[in-house]
Amino acid sequence: QIKFIYDASKKQVELIQELKIEPLTSLYNRKALTGALKSLVRKFNDGEVEPSLVVIDIDHFKHVNDQFGHANGDLVLIELANIIKKRMGGIRHSFRYGGEEFVLLFETKPLNEVVQIVDLIREDFSKKHYDFSPELIITISAGISKLCKNWDELIWFNSADSAMYSAKASGRNCIVY
Question: Is 48 considered catalytic here?
Fold first, then answer.
């Protein structure tokens, strides 16, 4: 009976974990992001971490879906997710926010290292070729924000999101921080 209870408990933990994973990209979803942001803000306020938040958006993604179809758009999303997983060492701090937007969290890395990792993701992704249009080059824009004193999750996220929109306004395929 103890084994049954243990197995049932273990299965419940697995199911709860699955609810946090976005099925297309196998990255954490927006619900998981909310919890992670709250946790990092708390840890920051306790002096435990110096976190950074990155918002990534695929440039001209609507064009990909409109011209090549949503199935091919999904391939692009999966490719970016795979590059993120490779450069982030798994999915632990990687999230699909929605649509073509992704979020990365760094607990303690200095800003220059965060920029370096995001730039590697940007470079890797821009070099990818797709069977549905081998000549097509798809890029990303990214915004980075360090958490500041007296900020909550929303202010922090909006800071990185605003930086990402600045990257788009600066010509796309770049990082603003």
Answer: no
From residue 2, how far is each of 6, 12, 13, 50 by CA, in Å?
6, 15, 17, 42
Alpha helices, DSSP H only, in 69-152? 70-88, 111-126
| Phi, psi (rounded to 5 degrees) for 133 | -165, 80
**pLDDT tens, position by position, 58-110:** 999 999 999 999 999 999 999 999 999 999 998 889 999 999 999 999 999 99
Determine the pLDDT at residue 17.
63
pLDDT of residue 6: 73
Q: Which of 100, 101, 107, 113 is catalytic?
A: 100
Question: Comparing C-alpha atoms, which of 177, 161, 157 is closest to residue 38?
Answer: 157
With beta carbons less than 8 A apart as the criterion, state whether 144 and 177 touch.
Answer: yes
Of 169, 145, 142, the residue nearest 156 (C-alpha)? 145
pTM of the model: 0.90
- Show Cβ contacts of residue 112 under 8 Å, excluding neighbours closer than 6 positions: none
User: Is residue 176 within 8 Å of 142, Cβ to Cβ?
Assistant: yes
Q: CB-based burial of residue 93 (10 Å sphere; 0-12 exposed, 13-18 middle, 19+ buried)?
A: buried
Sequence letter at residue 66:
D
* Distance in angstroms (rounded) separating the CA atoms of residues 47 and 36: 16
